[in-house]
Design a protein that fits this description.
CATH topology of the largest domain: D-amino Acid Aminotransferase, Chain A, domain 1
CATH architecture of the largest domain: 2-Layer Sandwich
Radius of gyration: 21 Å
Number of helices: 16
Helix content: 25-40%
Strand content: 25-35%
Largest sheet: 8 strands, antiparallel
Oligomer: single chain
Strand order of the largest sheet: 13-12-9-10-11-14-21-19
């Protein structure tokens, strides 16, 4: 087992990793930018070292600085959390060069899933259903039009190196294709330094369902059932839950089996997530694989009663995975992401000083957060402040519990998404489980928020 782990991340995920490490008897090292010198992950780690100024490229994305700190403190492993360098194969290779264990998959496994075209080819060979579309990258508008005609509109253009909804454009006819193609490439180039795009059939009324998976270096693989991430805004997840109100036992088995095939196809060794789009007829298609721990992992932890971060560390240390894990019959969990954003102003960022804070408590309520009264939310990073996770024996009970918890959650000094989530808990489509990824296009949450205030 590792003696000392450096955590190459910040915020709530850095704290989450520190807590599990402490319970495992592992020393922790926090790295931080000058903007995060007063962050709780700096305070609660056994050691903390500044790695640069506020901008991510100069601190949390500065591989050489992070490796220099790892050598300085004699860390024998690095946990990347999510975001930043978590899915960077070059960083994983650098760790290997320095003989420091990267807590995650191998660089080759990361690369096989990091590029969406390569991932799709791998999945097709493994017999995992994929969305119809281009066999590779699209080099011209004429080529895009030809494929769109073959598979039928609507279609979606996607950046091969993409994520977070960037470099994506939905096209409903020939007339809009050229403009969408040019915009997708421009945005992809600006966001990822790679303007390559591909084209797929756009699935209407889709559900975004992901399967939590785990594999080890000995070839064993398993899944820990699904999470429903269909409540989204501009392809960014806002609410996650498990089990999905849309998935039945037959679909759960099919998707779980397909996810395990995906893990076995690349001999994956870590925890990760295989993401699917599911149409209204319950046909499912591979989207991508996230080769890291995810923001929404606590949803699975709560319904499975299982520490995924601990499992990730154990796998990296060479411990076989814990075997087949079964989904409990009568537990449900929902996670709401609380961001420093103003839902009444198109979710505009709201950095600033938190002047007062009270987090909700009670049976079945978990809050993962790194903020406190007096903490200044910096403008340089993702605006996630906290995750509220509620667990109950039924979905209905879980929604009631979540609404109570959100109403109890007080954050003053910055605008947050708490009012949006409270309004969502009363939304008829959400309450009945009859929603898809287009829910927010139909939900007048601005009016709903104002009616609550």
């Amino acid at each position: 087992m590792f003696k000392k782990i450096l955590i190459a991340n910040r915020g709530e995920i850095a704290l989450r990793i520190i807590r599990t490490c402490k319970e495992m008897g592992i020393q922790t090292v926090a790295v931080y930018s000058t903007a995060d010198r007063d962050s709780l992950h700096v305070r609660f780690a056994d050691e903390a070292v500044c790695i640069g100024p506020p901008k991510s490229k100069d601190s949390y994305l500065n591989m050489q600085n992070i490796m220099a700190v790892a050598e300085l403190v004699n860390a024998d492993a690095i946990h990347p959390g999510y975001g930043f360098l978590a899915e960077n194969a070059e960083f994983a290779e650098l760790c290997a060069t320095y003989k420091i264990k990267f807590i995650g998959p191998t660089p080759a496994q990361m690369r096989s899933m990091g590029d969406k075209i390569t991932a799709k080819e791998t999945m097709l060979k493994a017999g995992v259903p994929c969305i119809p579309g281009s066999e590779g990258l699209i080099d011209t508008v004429a080529e895009a039009k030809k494929i769109a005609k073959q598979i039928g509109y609507p279609v979606i253009l996607k950046a091969t190196a993409g994520g977070g909804g960037k470099g994506m454009r939905i096209v409903r006819d020939d007339a809009g294709l050229e403009h969408a193609y040019n915009m997708a490439r421009t945005e992809a180039g600006a966001s990822f330094g790679n303007d390559a795009v591909y084209l797929e059939k756009f699935i209407e009324e889709p559900h975004h369902i992901e399967i939590q998976v785990a594999g080890d270096r000995y070839g064993a693989a398993t899944h820990l059932s699904e999470r429903d991430c269909s409540v989204q805004r501009r392809h960014q997840k806002l609410v996650e839950e498990a089990p999905s109100p849309f998935v039945d036992e037959e679909l759960r088995k099919k998707m779980g089996d397909a996810a395990v095939k995906a893990v076995q196809a690349i001999a994956y060794e870590s925890v990760g997530t295989v993401e699917f789009l599911v149409d209204k007829h319950k046909n499912f298609y591979f989207m991508e694989m996230n080769t890291r721990i995810q923001v929404e992992h606590p949803v699975t932890e709560e319904v499975m009663d299982f520490d995924l971060v601990k499992e990730q560390i154990l796998i990296a240390a060479g411990t076989p995975i814990s075997g087949v894990l079964y989904f409990p019959d009568k537990m449900h969990a929902i996670e709401c992401r609380v961001n420093a954003e103003d839902p009444l102003n198109n979710f505009a960022p709201s950095p600033g000083k938190i002047t007062a804070l009270h987090t909700p408590k009670g049976y079945g309520v978990r809050v993962d957060t790194h903020v406190y009264a007096g903490y200044t939310v910096p403008p340089y990073y993702d605006s996630l402040l906290a995750k509220v996770i509620c667990r109950a024996k039924s979905r209905e009970e879980c929604i009631v519990k979540m609404k109570r918890a959100l109403e109890e959650f007080i954050i003053e000094g910055v605008k947050t998404t708490i009012p949006f989530h409270i309004a969502l808990m009363d939304n008829e489509e959400f309450r009945t489980g009859k929603f898809d990824t287009g829910l927010l296009d139909r939900f007048d949450y601005v009016t709903a928020i104002k009616e609550l205030s």
